[in-house]
Write a structure and sequence with these properties.
The structure holds two protein chains of two kinds.
Chain A lengths: L16 H23 L1 H24 L10 H11 L7 H17 L11 H12 L1 H4 L3 E3 L10 E3 L12 H6 L11 H14 L5 H16 L4 H6 L3 H8 L10 H21 L6 H18 L13
Antiparallel strand pairs in A: 1-2
Helix pairs in contact in A: 1-2, 1-3, 1-8, 2-3, 2-4, 3-4, 3-5, 4-5, 5-13, 8-11, 9-11, 9-12, 12-13
Chain B lengths: L6 H6 L15 H6 L4 H24 L9 H23 L1 H7 L10 H9 L6 H31 L1 E2 L2 E2 L18 H23 L18 H8 L23 E2 L2 E2 L2 H4 L1
The chains are: A mainly alpha, B mainly alpha.
Chain lengths: 309, 267
Amino acid sequence: MYLNVSASPHVRDSITTRRLMGDVVIALIPALIVSYFIFGWRAVMLTAVTVAASVIFEWLSQLVMKRDQTIGDLSAVVTGVLLAFCLPPELPIWMAIFGAFVAIVVVKHMFGGLGANIANPAIVGRIVLAVSFAGEMNNFGILGRFLGEGQADLVATATPLANPDNVKYLDLFLGRHAGTIGEVSALALLVGFAYLLFRGVIDAWIPVTYVGVTALFVWILGKDPLLHILGGGLLLGAIFMATDYVTSPTTTKGKIIFGVGAGLLTGLFRLFAASPEGVSYAILLMNIMNPHIERWTRNKTIGGVDYVA
Amino acid sequence: MARKTSLGRELTKGVLRDNPLLILLLGLCPALAVTTSAINGLGMGVASTFVLVMSNLIVSLLRNVIPDKVRIPAYITIISSLVTMVQFVMQGYVPALNQALGIFIPLITVNCIILGRAEAFANRNTPLASVLDGLGMGIGFTVALFLIGATREILGNGSIFGYFLPFVGEGHMLKPIMIFAMPPGGFAVFGLLIAITQRLNNKFYARQPLGTMDRAHFPGSISARTDAAMHGVEQRFPEGASAAQVPGAVPETLKKDGKPIKEKDQQ
């Protein structure tokens, strides 16, 4: 009998990084279409710019660091779309490109490329931009015709979280309110979520626990939970960013811990911190906790030998 | 320190090979706290260099006088006297810089670089070598602080030595990137400079091909395990041992007479 001794993995199937990332891009398209109707062409252009910048930075990084070229796996495209989705539509172009630089070069490739990054690149790109350009990153607007003013230009206005008076839940659900490019329409994000679940790209543990715990926390403290679910970046973060394969736990137990932690942190940041939004900081902190969560929740190997890690 | 080194090398080693900030990773507190502008970095560097050279000289001159048991208090006394002088001079001639550097000027007293050079070099070398060592280390520290400060000022404030760059600021297309003026940006620039320095260091000084984290050459290394990873060799078993001889490496059920089951045993 011959025993072929080799390192795992031993079984492979047809699911590739490219297929998974392609599915995520497809799931993000409804939100992009909605953003065109809410914010006009500039939202789509900004998304195109960050995607192009992300792919180019990925190509350049791999060229300079003499790594294999993997721009075909679409992971840089996903990062670019997600980064654009958490930017306000009127952000200057060069700032968006700087954000893509931080996301791809600093967060992804300086830490070792796809699979080795310690935090979600798009989240860190957004946070660096938010810290660096507070004015521009909080300059939210919406096309004038949704405010009954008959204008085809963006009109500056506050987000529902910053100004919670007189909001209609239907408007929040459909996306007729100010916000970042991708976060406005809960409906479009839920369509994307359903697609990802159907294709088996993600499972529901992290999004459901994350949104549920945030809503519960906000409700206990006497605020409107529905407003907090629909009015900010919670759905975008919970569905597309907190479920990033590289920076979220692999076991169900770990996913629940991750979702609960992110939910509590988001509630705390939103109600008690200086900024009305806190999803990105919550996910970043849980990303950093991820290796520890993975260690606490590691599955026991059947018949394995005990060893000290 | 028995090895023979030329005086020239004592001067130059502090700049790149043993750069106190970027290779030895000493003096991080002032390096990160005051380097928001080029002039702050330069001022801090020059003040520290003066204290470093003078303390090395005095400690070296007194190295046969100071009893070993009380050497640390003696060094601190020497250093703090020098720092007091520096602070009076700065208060008198450059009050604005003194204001900007604030508490970090008195804190030069407990800067690890100065105490470290007194302890590791000046108390066992001649005054001339000690002065050159202090000067080289001081220049290395100043250059590093200046580079961090200049980078952070250009990116975080849109200016250099207080003069604003064209195309940046109010009414122009580009705006300063605030994060570089804040602590996270300081850490980011510092990390990048460490990477660049180690790269240059490898290029100019490594005699044999070394990993960037070789402990013997670069004391900034994290652990032996990291070294192994950097060299691409992970040692699973002790030297010369095979899996069969290490307890627990192979489950008992697979062993026979202390050896792993081989093909012919099964037939």
